[in-house]
Amino acid sequence: MAQPALEFYKALFEDMAPEIFPQRFMKVLLDLQGVDRGSIWVKEPEGYRCIEAAGGEAAKILDLVLEPGKPSIVAWVIENKEMTISEVDHDQRQAKRIEDGLDTKSTIILCFPLILRSGEVYGAVEIIDTSHQGDRMNLEPGYLELLQNLVDIGSIALGNALSFADQRQENQRLKQALAEAGGGRIISSSPAFLEVLKTARHYARTDFPVLITGESGTGKDLVAAEIHRLSQRGENPFLVQNCSAIPDTLLESELFGYKKGAFTGAHHDRQGLFEAAQGGTVFLDEIGDMPLNLQARILRVLQNQEVKPLGGARSKKVDVRIVAATNKDLDQAMAAKAFREDLYYRLNVLPLELPPLRERREDIPLLLQFFMSREASLMGMADKRFVPQTQAGLSAYDWRGNIRELENLVKYLLATVEGAVVEPRHLPPHLMAGAGGGTAEPEGLSQPAQSLDGLSWQEMERAYVEHLLQKHRWNITRAASEAQVNRSTFNSRLAKLGLKKDQDG
Fold first, then answer.
1. Which of 37, 122, 236, 340 can pair with 280 through a Cys bridge, CB separation 3.0 to 4.6 Å?
2. Do the Cβ atoms of 142 and 153 come closer than 8 Å?
3. Mean pLDDT by 10 residues, the chain (505 residues)
4. Orientation of helix 292-304 relative to helix 248-256, angle to 10°
5. How far apart are CA 30 and CA 79, in angstroms?
6. In which residue ranges of the chain is CATH 3.40.50.300 found?
7. How many whole angstroms separate alpha carbon 280 and alpha carbon 286?
8. Superfamily assignment of 191-355 in CATH?
């Protein structure tokens, strides 16, 4: 029993792309049972779809959708959340229409549910014997128990791989949509910010380091990208590293790379960000949070244009421009011995301070409209307009979270405002007073809204969708119509959010 488990772990969890994981998962299970036909099915709003198939007639099954409510072993296993063994010729649960389309018929089907760590069943995997006697598979209880344990472990990894691959596809679509909607544009008519952009264009003509300062959410990343785009390095890589987002040891390896054997798990050489950006620009965001030991290594890059990978014996020459940004007061950090003075003066050759949104209020209406059009387009929804009283109130607000807070507000309004017009009463309480809406609770909310900096898009979307479903008593067509999206898009979002009718009784 131990040997199959060892082979399973070795084959299944070696380094591979998420897209390959379903195929490898399928192959390992088939090998353990000595058969060559099998399939993996996942739940979708339209039914149960085959995402992976193996065997000589796999093409006939791949991407096939089994409709809910019609007999199939897959549906039975998913709905009952348990493994089953099916003798195809005598099992009323079997989807006969699938077998009718195959030249080689299935004899025995062994089907396991695919279960997430939360206990949710998201699909099923079939292992199929096509031999005439149906005697190729090991169906002894002890062996099936072992297989069940292996499938339980593998199904969690498979679920993660499918989620990762799906998210990556979603990110690619999002990036394309953002590009089409002007996702990287700098929107401004403010004299203060236009002066910043003028200075940035001058800086782009040189190759000196730039230090961008300003409050969080003021657009430092966009300005850094604009400097790179306008520079002679514009056709080469622009690589970004947030210095506060990952642990110190990982940050060092991300920036400088490492040699094989430098530490446990370093199975091969890996190029760091500075090498990967050869000829281009490295943007070090939140550099004020960089630990002192790494600051010394960054200083060496600036002084000598060379890097040494972790575990390496020799330094390598690099040709990169460094643009750094921080929302911290580096003068205070230097006084507290938390930031090196020599690094500060090396980085601060070309200083650039971004004004907060409250100092460029003429940009607020432009940004509101831009984010509204962009986010509505991404969600397949009609955008909403702001009545003058609402827009005036928002222009008077101080926006402590700057552009990021404003962007989050637009997402919130898209998720919660049912009509085509945003009135003062629709705003969160901390914004309503400025827009002349008093302090009453916005319509449709069961509790006061918190600062938008703490809200995720998924949380806002889920609340909005639940509101529509309850309002229309789970009539999907009516809910989708009010959301101004088509039914299939609405169904897809339900599946993504994990919403089911039985949740609401």
1. 236
2. no
3. 52 56 85 92 88 89 86 92 90 82 90 87 93 87 86 81 61 47 68 93 96 94 94 94 82 85 75 91 94 91 89 87 95 94 95 95 91 86 88 90 93 90 87 54 37 59 77 78 73 78 49
4. 10
5. 24
6. 191-355
7. 20
8. P-loop containing nucleotide triphosphate hydrolases (3.40.50.300)
Tokens encoding 156: 């969690």
Question: Angle 476-483/487-497 helices, nearest 10 degrees?
Answer: 100
Residue 204, classified by CB atoms within 10 Å of its CB into exposed (0-12), middle (13-18) or buried (19+), is: buried
Instruction: Tell me where in the chain the CATH 3.30.450.40 domain(s) lie.
Output: 2-168
Superfamily of domain 2-168: GAF domain (3.30.450.40)
> How far is it, in rounded angstroms, from Cα 170 to Cα 115?
23
Q: Tell me the residue ranges of DSSP E strands in 140-293.
A: 210-213, 238-242, 257-258, 270-271, 281-285
Q: Which residues touch 191 (CB under 8 Å, ≥6 apart)?
A: none
Query: Closest Cα partner for 380 from 469, 484, 457, 491?
Result: 484
Tokens matching residue 405: 């807070």
Whole-structure pTM over 0.85, yes or no?
A: no
